[in-house]
Amino acid sequence: MKKNSATFRSNARFARTTWGGLSSLALRNLKHLTEIHAVSVAAGDLQLLDGRWYITHGGLLGISERRRCYGIRTTIEREMSDPNTDRWVFKATVYKSPRSRGFVGYGDADPSNVSSLVHGAEMRVAETRAVNRALRKAYGIGLCSVEELGSLPSRSVLPPPRRDRSCSPPMNGSGNGHPRLRDRLCLLIRKHRLDAGLVKLYAAEFCGTPVLRDASREQVESFIAHLAEWAERDRDGLLCKLNSYSPTPEVSP
C-alpha cells in the first residue's frame, strides 16, 4: 500500500509537470491505474489527451512483463493488406500461459490514419496496434492505446508551449542552459546506444514542434527525463518506439 501511494504521488507530480493542472477525475483515474497496473508516467506508460488517459505500447509491454506473459505471435493478414497503397493489417495473439488459447487483436494502418512523421512505416504501426489490442484484451485494460489512434493534435497530448518563447533559445543555441540539455541528451544517446536521428524525430513529436530546436526548455527537460526513465526501465520497448520513425527503404523494381 505504501509503495502504491508513493508511486501515485510520483505519477501525479510528473503528470502535473508535463501537462499542467489535472482534473479531479483525471487524478482519480491515475490513482486507479497506478494501483491496478503499476504504470509509470515518467516511463511513458501513459499519455493525457483531452483530459483522458491513454496507455502506450511501452506501458502495455511493461504490464505484460510484470504479469509474466508467455508469448506474443503476430501475422500479416495478406488478404486485407495492400502493399501498393501502404495499407497493412496484422493479427496478434497474446498467450498468458503455456496452456492459454490466446487473446486475439487486429490492427490496421495506412497513410490516412497514421501521423505524417511515420509515413512509410505503416507496416510497423499496424503490427504495434494489433499487439496493443491483444494485450489490452488479455489483461483487461479498458484504456485505448495511443498507437491505436490516428494522427493526434500534439497540443492535446503534450505539454502546452510557453506563452513567451522569445526568451527560450533553440536546442542548439548557446544561452540559458540549452547546451547543457543538448549534452545530457547526447550522453543518454551514447549510454543506451540509441539512434540520434530517430531520437530527434521522437523528441520533436513529444514536444509538439516541427523540429526539436523549436521546443521550449521545459519541453526538452520533460523529454530528457522521459527518455532516461524509459531507457533504464525498458530499452527494448524504447527501441521499438524509435524504430517506428525509421523510413521504409524504397525497393527498386
Provide the descriptors you would attach to this structure in a database record.
three-stranded antiparallel β-sheet; 11% strand; Double Stranded RNA Binding Domain; globular; alpha+beta; disordered C terminus; 5 strands; single chain; 253 residues
Describe the structure.
- With 253 residues, the chain is α+β, with helices and mostly antiparallel strands.
- It folds into three domains: 2-47, no CATH class; 65-148, Double Stranded RNA Binding Domain; 158-243, no CATH class.
- Helix content is 45%, strand content 11%.
- The chain has helices at 2-19, 24-37, 57-66, 122-138, 154-157, 178-191, 196-207, 217-233, 235-243, and strands at residues 46-49, 52-55, 71-76, 88-95, 103-109.
- The strands form two sheets. It has a three-stranded antiparallel β-sheet with strand order 3-4-5. Strands 1-2 form a two-stranded antiparallel sheet.
- A hairpin with a 2-residue loop joins β1 and β2.
- It is globular and about 50 Å long.
- It starts with a helix and ends in a 10-residue tail after the last helix.
